[in-house]
Inverse folding.
């Protein structure tokens, strides 16, 4: 199977979420690409193409079997495997991620949290004890952890990334604004919490401007 | 100027962040589209096209003036305006968003937080007192708030969205997994905190599989 690109992976994730939600509400046996496309505001051809890329074929007008689609997506994306992660930086966002219970359905379990703030170390968030940063390398080696979640301040994240990669981390989920430099075989997934504001601020601006126009016409 | 599409807005946001970071580190006068493209792993033609869409023109080999680019993006996206938001649902994620100080640079200020949990109401997060949910409609009307941030449990979010829209909310930043139904002139921006896991899980799966192959060859 050809290597899947990032945007395909993200769309597969959206299909999976949609179908999980649907089936949580009521039993659904089959669904068409048109129905999925409409719910997610995507082109139906795109949906069929993405499904084709992971070996799914529809049954004419009947569409796709929901269970089969979910299962295929889980296998293609690797959610049927379990992978452990450590989290570094236990501020508000780190705490929110630790407490979030939705990751397990994607195979992810956060097994340890680290911080260098003495007032946080030894504390507990969502059942996870916060360990001192100096224990991070032995921990990763001992537990063969390959994923690290970074929610640290900007100035420490690059140095941390170097140290993590040294002991075998192969993927970094980066919630800091730093563009990390890593070896070619390490994946950095950058999350930019404010990015949605580009769309929101623009929408509010456009609306305010069109309201101004109407007010102008009124006078 | 033509209406900008979502992906253009998001790329403009990425350019803005990159340039803010660069200038925070050292004074930078000019930058070329090739340099920006390389730093963000985007095609240089795309960068020039996006800049063109907001009226920016480069100066041949010298490239673009960094200040000018930042200013143009801020104006195009509406970050030079101030807009107030309310937040509903003050669990871990809600608390993280309240405490995050990075939104103000994009014009956003969270002016009130609401919850229906009696043990949270009256408490304070990052200087913001948590109000009871029943006060939400009068508050929005009185303060003419047009943006709401939702970090509520799934089962209440659609009902809440209806109520918010009734009193004038024009944009919803939706951190819940619910696909909200709203009138056409209201923007819903869905954030899907787990979406990055599609790329991460897939990368780890591919790596594990290629490691297995090597092990197989060794035997």
């Amino acid at each position: 199977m050809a290597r899947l690109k990032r945007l395909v992976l993200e769309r597969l994730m959206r299909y999976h979420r949609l179908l999980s939600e649907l089936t949580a509400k009521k039993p659904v046996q089959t669904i068409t690409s048109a129905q999925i496309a409409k719910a997610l505001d995507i082109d139906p051809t795109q949906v069929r193409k993405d499904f084709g890329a992971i070996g799914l074929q529809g049954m004419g007008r009947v569409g796709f079997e929901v269970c089969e689609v979910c299962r295929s997506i889980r296998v293609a994306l690797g959610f049927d495997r379990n992978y452990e992660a450590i989290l570094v930086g236990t501020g508000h966002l780190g705490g929110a991620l630790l407490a979030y219970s939705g990751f397990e359905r994607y195979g992810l379990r956060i097994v340890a949290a680290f911080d260098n703030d003495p007032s946080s170390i030894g504390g507990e968030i969502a059942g996870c004890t916060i360990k001192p940063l100096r224990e991070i390398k032995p921990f990763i080696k001992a537990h063969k952890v390959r994923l690290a979640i970074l929610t640290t301040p900007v100035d420490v994240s690059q140095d941390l990334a170097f140290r993590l990669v040294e002991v075998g981390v192969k993927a970094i989920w980066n919630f800091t604004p730093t563009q990390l430099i890593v070896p070619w075989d390490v994946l950095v997934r950058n999350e930019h919490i404010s990015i949605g504001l580009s769309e929101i601020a623009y929408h509010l601006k456009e609306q305010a401007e069109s309201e101004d126009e109407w007010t102008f016409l009124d006078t």
